[in-house]
Amino acid sequence: ARRGVEIAMDDIGNELLGHPLELIGEDTGCSPEGGQAAATKLASNSQIVAIVGTSCSSEARVLAPVIDEAGMVMVSPSNTAPDLTDPATHVNGYLRTAHNDIVQGRVAAEFAYNNLGIRKAATVHDGSPYAQGLTQVFAENFRRLGGTITSEEAINVGDTDMTPLFGRLAAAADGPPELIYYPIFVAEGGFITRQIKDDPTLANAKLMGADGIFSPDFVTASGEAVLGMYLSSPDFSAFAGGYQEFTQKYEAKFGQAPTAAFHAHAYDAANIILAAIEKVAVQGEDGTLYIPRQGLRDALYATENFQGLTGNLTCDENGDCADPKIAVYEVVNTDPTTWNPGSDESSNPRKVYP
């Protein structure tokens, strides 16, 4: 995501309104503890104008209230947990350009039921807000379509032996699942994928994950067992015409094509922030640039029909700004160096829905 922000800054010469832009970062470790530590540092830094982040929903849950209380504003390119923009739990200092998993979970359930013909599925989460939210939405939609959720299971971050999980999945009262949906992260996702093929009851179940493992690192972690697995992620083929130019800039700057799912969302997050700053900044007689914090927030919430890479962005009162476009991809090659998501025959993973 940081690389998307860097390209947005490059596009305007790394300065805005005659003043240089500086990008700093905090490593939150994709954990609540990391989010809390980063929140304390960021909230006390009066030089920070706005924040692009966090990466994970779990850290945003603890960081966003602190940022909000400090009068600051953050726009996440990759938080997708539904509760972050739920009117009952949303804080005013938080917005996002990432999709809401209410959309992603529904698309995954529809694909499993309508396209794969699955009638019995199981879900697995790792306790994170991201995974819990996605499995809940998937289960609700799968049941609504007429399917049966045989089991709703959980693992712990750091688990390496998935045998107990497989035992619970296989022993479900409705029988073993035809599909297992585990929208978790690379490490534990890799262990599940590698080990499940050795379980005689579950070896033929179809496997499905989400954007948290949409990465060549997951292919590496899973080995040969990842072949044929389905992953939901942003639909890159539906992005705006400027996306191809963006990827060319990305490759020229970093020497490789984008590998993570939310690079374009980060670019859009940076650009709506930069556009909002231009609207509210006040130049003092001595050249000092003043950016009112409440004014910046208001300008971000007023974002409407902003032409971004990921679509036409309009921010609602709960901070959802995305123009969500979700696709399902199938892993067709177990060599991580072939990672090239798309809809062409040469793509890996290859888009199969819609």
Briefly characterize the structure.
Helix content is 37%, strand content 16%. The chain has 354 residues and is an alpha/beta fold.
Please outline the helices and strands.
Blueprint: H1 2-11, E1 15-16, E2 19-20, H2 32-43, E3 51-52, H3 57-69, E4 74-76, E5 94-96, H4 101-115, E6 120-125, H5 129-145, E7 148-154, H6 163-170, E8 179-181, H7 186-196, E9 206-209, H8 216-222, E10 230-234, H9 243-254, H10 263-280, E11 282-283, E12 289-290, H11 293-301, E13 306-308, E14 311-313, E15 326-330, E16 350-353
Helix pairs in contact: 1-10, 2-3, 4-5, 7-8, 10-11
Q: Can you give a write-up of this model?
A:
It contains eleven helices and 16 strands. The protein has helices at residues 2-11, 32-43, 57-69, 101-115, 129-145, 163-170, 186-196, 216-222, 243-254, 263-280, 293-301; strands spanning 15-16, 19-20, 51-52, 74-76, 94-96, 120-125, 148-154, 179-181, 206-209, 230-234, 282-283, 289-290, 306-308, 311-313, 326-330, 350-353. Helix 10 packs across helix 11 (293-301). The longest helix has 18 residues, at 263-280. The radius of gyration is 21 Å and the shape is globular. The mean pLDDT is 97.
Count every beta strand, where a strand is a DSSP E run of 2 or more residues: 16
Low-confidence blocks of residues: none
CATH evolutionary superfamily of the largest domain: Response regulator
Total helix count?
11
Cα Rg: 21 Å
Query: What's the architecture of the largest domain, going by CATH?
Result: 3-Layer(aba) Sandwich
Question: What string, H for helix and E for strand, traces the elements in order?
Answer: HEEHEHEEHEHEHEHEHEHHEEHEEEE
Report the sheet with the most strands, covering strand number, pairing sense and barrel closure. 7 strands, mixed
